[in-house]
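Exercise: predict the fold of this chain.
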Amino acid sequence: MSQRKVTKLWKAGDGTKVRICDMGDQHLLNAIAMLERFAEANRDAELRAAYAMEQMLHGDIATLCIEQDISALEQSDNEEFLPPIFQDLCREASRRNLPFDMVQEAGK
């Protein structure tokens, strides 16, 4: 007996849930772009928070630890801040051969 593929759901801006495979092409690309923007914003917010924390800490060990955290954040890319559903969206866009920069890289 064949099993049906379990499809993840995307929650649209209006609150409705849509299977990723049923999303329109433009909706799919817009969702990918939105998650990329959110990932960049989240990384930037984490970095700002780390810099603010650095100013409040005293002591060599505390300073060393926050400097290491800041260094790791500065060297990280936005992928670390993407939710798991991003991969599913990219795979679907890739399956449809939609032109999008991150689709080929992230959908693998």
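Check your answer against the key: The chain has a mean pLDDT of 86.
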